[in-house]
Amino acid sequence: MIKSENSKIILGIDPGIANTGYACLLSKEGTFRVLKVGVFITKKGYTPSRIKKVYDFFTELVIQFEPDCISMERLFFAKNVKTALLVEEVRGALMLLSAQQSIDLFQYTPLQIKKTLTSYGQASKLEVKMVAQQLVRCDLPKSDDACDAVAAAICHAYNEDLGDIYD
User: Cα–Cα distance between 22 and 37 in angstroms, integer?
Assistant: First the structure.
């Protein structure tokens, strides 16, 4: 991995049981380069197996890109309690991964992410995506999950001292 002294690799994650967005960004002096972005998808089935698949995928991503930190979107509100609990289980697995790999984990609410990127906490997903695309200077996938992961990584780059860290 090409990384200079004053650069940092941030792994942004938008957690989910069916779709988990991810983005590996190289951050250097306020500029960003997308190393990898996408969505990891699990099919319906036995929940522990799905969570293990997410865990295994992100383990490989961490090994490949050696991020300096992880920036994960925090669950702020959920219409469906069952889905919210499943997302929290995925988040727990990702927290375990960060601890096992000794990678600092930071969390930001959707409001914090939107406010950081657009200066408006009620910005639409499209507005956030447009700002994120300008900052990374490339087109992002159509997936909201992937774009949310990019936004989480950018948010952390601008707010390193404000995120909730779990030691």
Answer: 6
